[in-house]
Amino acid sequence: MQEWWSSLDWFSQILWGTSLIGSLIFSLLLILNLVAGDADVEMEDVDATIEGDTGIGFQFFSLKNLVGFFTIFGWTGLACYESGMGKLGS
Q: Which parts of the chain fold into alpha helices (H)?
């Protein structure tokens, strides 16, 4: 395994690292969502500005969005680079 990793250039190492770490966190979040599901948790002492009907407003940056971005970025970049597109195209 270490020989394979050492034989990769720096760009491939970045893409593989991003892909594998993103996929690991994505899988962990998927399993936790499937196991925990829509848990009914009572929070009596929470002081939040969330309205009952509207919920939280649009969230552009969230953990799930970032994990999804880095996972897809890594695998798509790796596929493009391995097919011969070059670093800029990938």
A: 2-7, 10-36, 63-82
Q: Pick the closest to residue 11 from 67, 66, 82 (CA basis).
A: 82
> Coil, strand, or helix at residue 51?
strand
Backbone phi, then psi, for 55, in 5-degree steps? 75, -160
Q: Give the integer Cα–Cα distance in Å for 89 and 78.
A: 11
CA distances from 30 to 25, 34, 35, 82 (A): 9, 6, 9, 28
The whole-angstrom separation of Cα 59 and Cα 17 is: 27
Handedness of CA 37, 38, 44, 46 (dihedral sign): positive
Predicted pLDDT of residue 64:
86
pTM of the model: 0.70
Q: How far apart are CA 12 and CA 16, in angstroms?
A: 6
